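Z., the sequence and structure:
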Amino acid sequence: MLAKKDELLILPLGGLEQIGANCAMIGNDKDWIIIDLGIAFYDKLGIEVLTPDISFPISVKDHIKGIFVTHAHEDHMGAIPYLWPRLQCPIYLTEFPGAILKRKFDEFPWKDEVKINIVQPRNRFKVGSFEIEFVSLAHSVLGSCGIYIKTKAGTLFHTGDWKIDEAPLLGDESDEERLAQIGKEGVDCLLCDSTNILEDGKDGFETDVREALVRIVSQHKNKRVTVTCFASNIARLETVLHVAKKTGRKATIIGRSMHRMINAVSETSYCSNEFKNNISAIATEEEAASMPPEKVLLICTGSQGETRSALYRLARGENRVIKMGKQDVVLFSSKVIPGNELDIRELQNMLIRKEVEIVTTDTEDDIHVSGHPTKASLAKMYKWLKPKSFIPVHGDARMLYAHKKFAEDNGISETLLAESGDIVKCNDGKLQKIEHRDIIFNAIDGVDLIPLNSKILRERNIMSCNGYVCVSLVLSPNGDILYRPITSVHGIYIDNENYKNLEKLISKILKTEIAKRTSKIDTLKSECEASIKKLFFKNFDKKPIVTVHIHKK
């Protein structure tokens, strides 16, 4: 164990250099716990998703008492089903995230081995040498909580993602009373969401969105309206269903992820009679396609330009029954996640080319409210918890630096800017970096998990920029070339005339290397590959991956 007696250690493993892959470990001289284990989106080299580096958790596996999940968003719990076999520890979370996670595990062979513990907010319980309490916080997904951690070495509060909404239409409000009580008990260190720190907007509420959507949908009396939002934002889905009813339209839900969320809600206490009635009244896609446009309101995923989303397929004309055109208007009821700007722009351009009208927060800012705290909300959190020290989390370097400064401006003198891999000691509210461990994110590649710096991904990167060359030849027992070598070049443009000349040059290289009468085939192979690579750099300014196959009769 790294910690000494009466020391509290904090080790961020993700979420401090980008939006996503949120994960932190909290430890003392006996035990460790993990808070969140999320994914980050990547979209390079055939990789769509990254997970945190869990090499350190694996090294202290026997001391890990559990994974504690703040809420049901992918960037906070999406990596759990992939990484759980390497950790094999209990999972603790509230009702709605539990329903989502159980559905995720259904797709994995180890689903029956996982111990998922559903906990209630405000119910403090003991795990190892930790006392843990989940505290309700409003967010854009149901069942979100901050986590209060108490040990003999000190106390810590991790907010996860949160906001203040005094009258949420669906879900829990932030438990301000309990937060203030915890502040009186004493918080040595606060880890707090930094997502909105660079924005100066006011606190927004779902009631504002509901009113705005009723107004905007009513303005498009002769058009079919589509609202795109995050599948996990069940409150927004419920709002859109209300808007459809209010404006005399039939709602239709498109997208498997959105249907999965609805099914998860139906298994929880959040499923009110009104929600059940609204869901039972939705039309099928076939019914919506046969109705007049002005009588339909479509709800679908795709607000971030995801290529597999329902809206993307509609924009490409790939939906089986619903076709978009000048009779359509699409409302983007969501925030642009940093890094998704180009994907969203491409999607919106596809829609515009189909003569679809689009409405975004650029022109109608009330069609979305953030699930993250404004500066005013952050100041309230500091006032409630009265932390002795502060570490900003969940954001890139600009966000974390701005949040650190904002906390200092609001009276928290002991602050620390951490990076993923930093091991931070908290001693009675004093923070000190005592060690740093290199962090290498993992890529989910099909069904495999591979380090982002692996040879496989380096080769993919080389091939994507420099191409691939394969040469095959057959040697006689004496080591002479029996047949004309076969050369195959991929990803490098070469016209027919130059290709013939290239084959001659490669044959010359092979004859030169074979003339050296190298006894070992592996040595001959590597020398041929090196010489061919030099040939391509000299003639085409490319450094391709070269493979030479040698068969000896």
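The first strand starts at residue 8 and ends at 14. The mean pLDDT is 92.

Let me know what you think.
H.
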